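User: Modeling request: complex.
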Amino acid sequence: MATRLTEEACFRAPTGERDIEIMTDSETIQRQRAAALRTVWILAAVALLVYVGFIASGVLAR
Amino acid sequence: MATTHADHHDDHHDHKPSGFFQRWVLSTNHKDIGTLYLVFALIMFLVGGAMALIIRAELFQPGLQLVDPEFFNQMTTMHALVMIFGAVMPAFVGLANWMVPLMIGAPDMALPRMNNWSFWIMPFAFGLLLLTLFVPGGGPAGGWTLYPPLSLQGGNNVAMTIFAIHMMGVSSIMGAINIIATILNMRAPGMDLLKMPIFVWAWLITAFLLIAVMPVLAGAVTMLLTDKFFLTSFFNAAGGGDPVMFQHIFWFFGHPEVYIMILPAFGVVSEIIPTFARKPLFGYQAMVYATASIAFLSFIVWAHHMFTVGMPMGGELFFMYATMLIAVPTGVKVFNWVSTIWKGSMTFETPMLFALGFVVLFTIGGFSGLMLAIVPADFQYHDTYFVVAHFHYVLVTGAVFSIMAAAYFWLPKWTGHMYNETLGKVHFWLSAISVNVLFFPQHFLGLAGMPRRIPDYNVAFADFNMISTIGGFAFGFSQLLFVYIVWQTARGGQKATAGVWEGAKGLEWTVPSPAPHHTFSTPPAIDDSMLAHGNTAH
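Assistant: Request completed. Predicted assembly structure:
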């Protein structure tokens, strides 16, 4: 089971952090978030490649 | 699914942050960020609508009455940019933020901090864009398509507009990445891809479109920027560049952009019609494949926007037939919606009225799109009010009507209160009638040859313009009623049940209304019989 903030700690934590900590309640959800992070990096790399590639093709065509 | 009801966990841990700043500025909660997106979109809808009313007021009669032509051009440009990037897209992202995690049984979006960042870029982007109206020389006036060399002839607004577009692009891309990561990774166990609600499917496909084309727009406007300020000649004919190349690149982004604004609308309507017809959606898998087909075809039709620039005959034929091909999967969708209604036990609450209005009126926009796809006919229609009528049927009676439908459909889930049904129906009928008075005569104006983006026109076009303006003001003021209904519902009213609608199915209807601040912090157990599309065997 993933680490879970105690109720008291939840109240002390900044809002955003507490929202995120609640998502670590379940091991399944924690696993899902790790996989999601990989997806994010792949998609971000694709977006960056399209952007840079488009401009680079314009430069090469000149 | 029964086990998901309200989640015991949420009963004890539904602590909303107390301060305004903590709750709304630092929020990482998908529901709060969804609300922020929706409120932002509504404000931008009113701002863009005010610009449209300036345009229509000027066109009420021939001659120059209210604004000078330069300002008129700024209004046409800004109206489009604000409505597309500030109203319609953020509204759908807001709907996705609110509903996708609820529909797939996820506790939140995959990257909640990035979600916050995606939203808070938007007010700065639009602040910057709207600020251009107050700089010397005014705002961008070359049309939302930003075609060079015209778009580069502006003053200070060029850099500001391009920077604003970059920020909108970054926001959209981050939002899309978050949605894909959420849908692909955060689904509750048992929520297979082909068991997801159609709205989720539509958004998954839309998000891929966004990631594919927003960087293309960013690349194109970066090259515009360097042409303007760093002496490059990507699109400058005098330096050996090609301005037509910009049009190709722009529409490679621009046409999928149209589908970015309409695929989520298809998803919304596909949720609402089965609910109020009390039947599972007809042809669930066909709907998914049709959506994917439309998305694929959207990448190979861009040049139908520029048939008149001069293109080889083979190219014109290819883009004409490819465009016509889109009618096939779109027809599948319309057929499936009608088949879902067929022999359904229908009731006509406001969301259903807007959804049915969507099916009828969007189809009119689709048909005029087919007319525009025909190359020789397009030579007549191009740059006329026929085009304006066409895309407003698609985007107003299509995208905007579906957003209205979604707002009425999910408002009880968001606020915990039922909206005023009588006022909702009045809003629908006022909107449905006035929007046709506004846009239908524009078909006739276009066929008669009235060009778009002009502040003055031949007296022969006076009558239809007058009718269109009356419809415009009626439609514009009708939307104030919507604002009142939303405000009234948020403040109180009859308590909504968890299920809200008799025919509602899906995970989102198993949590109480209003949805607790945290939902599904332990994954729900999925029972196929309760899925949104009934007992679909895959």
